[in-house]
Amino acid sequence: MSDWDPDMELDCTAVLADVWLMLDGECDEATRARLQHHMEHCSPCIEAYGIEEKIKGLLSRKCGGDRAPESLRERLTVELRRAFIATETSVETSD
């Protein structure tokens, strides 16, 4: 049984920061369910997910399926989250 609470809303920044974890199969089922539920009801997030999925596929094809070193993967995850938070912050402050 899942810990997913349908009343718990995620903001788009959190969803987009974790979309790579979902694409890589690195999140638990409860997190996957929350992310998928959000994206089913948020067209900007599902669009961003589709773009991220295409990027991941392209990288996989062009890099021959080699797995990046864990240290690089961790740095990229941190930088992707920072980029989404910075983008969201910029959007909020311009209103």
UniProtKB/TrEMBL annotation:
<dbReference type="InterPro" id="IPR027383">
    <property type="entry name" value="Znf_put"/>
</dbReference>
<dbReference type="Pfam" id="PF13490">
    <property type="entry name" value="zf-HC2"/>
</dbReference>
<feature type="domain" description="Putative zinc-finger">
    <location>
        <begin position="12"/>
        <end position="45"/>
    </location>
</feature>
<protein>
    <submittedName>
        <fullName>Mycothiol system anti-sigma-R factor</fullName>
    </submittedName>
</protein>
<dbReference type="InterPro" id="IPR024020">
    <property type="entry name" value="Anit_sigma_mycothiol_RsrA"/>
</dbReference>
